[in-house]
Amino acid sequence: MASVMRVLCLAAALLPSSVLAFNSRVVPRHTQFRGSSSFGRGGKFSTRHDVTKRRTGGGPLFGGNNDGDNIDPNPGGLNQWSDDDDNKKSFKDMSFFEQIQEWFASDEGKEDVKTYTVSLSVALLLRLLIIEPRYIPSLSMYPTFEVGDQLAVEKVTKRIRPFNRNEVVVFNPPERFRELVGESSRKSKEALIKRIVAVEGDTVEVKMGGKLFVNGVQQDEPFTAEDAEYEFGPVIVPPGDVLVLGDNRNHSLDGHIWGFLPAENVIGRAVFVYWPPWRVGNTGMF
């Protein structure tokens, strides 16, 4: 029996420190218990607990005066120690700003911040250099686009290939347009959308009857709402410029009024309508 008890005591000494815990407070292996438990004479293990005594404060571990007779028989039942975790507020008891600070300090928060930062950087890169969303504010391009249509404008190909007739482009208004609407007007700062009808070197005119001619050839324009009710030209498009008109020819403030558009003002080509769902489709640019 004595040998069995020795084996049990040795096993207890070798257990992980997390096993020797009282009320979530880990007791180190090297702690000396000053109770009355001991190996008696002849190798017998004896235990003498005074179950009528309770800890009233004092000693460093179990309380009392550590005179060998005041060991607590039920240390787990006396909840008089405070662990560091017990002093912390629960997340739901924190204020909003404390919750934010706690989230940022956590591993999960740090990982989320990293993910959001990368995603935002990629989105900004796409927005600035590759593609951006635009919406249609007026009927100047009706029936191709309706008010409220949202479309994607790609910004890459303008750098690698020249503009062609019939392409729909979004652009910053030229100086002449700003003079017409007033420099302080909100419209003078808004991007516009029109269709290119002639490029540099073309001779263009709108003849009686509202038909468009480019280099002497009448253009087939199934995308227009109606024939123009004005005459224009003939004029030659200067180098580096294009001429743009709205598809709703008689309700568009466009190149037949304010002249040519510098190609450098073009933001990008309108390539795809993505909203509303029933109008989703490409604009014929590709």
TrEMBL record:
Residues 113-275 form the Peptidase S26 domain. CDD domains: S26_SPase_I (cd06530). Keywords: Hydrolase, Membrane, Mitochondrion, Mitochondrion inner membrane, Protease, Signal. One of its GO terms (cellular component) is mitochondrial inner membrane. It catalyses: Cleavage of hydrophobic, N-terminal signal or leader sequences from secreted and periplasmic proteins. Its main location: mitochondrion. InterPro entries: LexA/Signal_pep-like_sf, Pept_S26A_signal_pept_1, Pept_S26A_signal_pept_1_CS, Pept_S26A_signal_pept_1_Ser-AS, Peptidase_S26. Residues 1-21 form the signal peptide. Residues 57-66 have a biased composition (Gly residues). One of its GO terms (molecular function) is serine-type endopeptidase activity. GO terms for biological process: signal peptide processing. Residues 44-71 are annotated as: Disordered. Gene3D superfamilies: Umud Fragment, subunit A (2.10.109.10). Its EC number is 3.4.21.-. Pfam families: Peptidase_S26. The active site is at S140, K194. The keyword Ion transport does not apply. Belongs to the peptidase S26 family. NCBIfam families: sigpep_I_bact. This is Mitochondrial inner membrane protease subunit. The lineage of its organism: Eukaryota, Sar, Stramenopiles, Ochrophyta, Bacillariophyta.
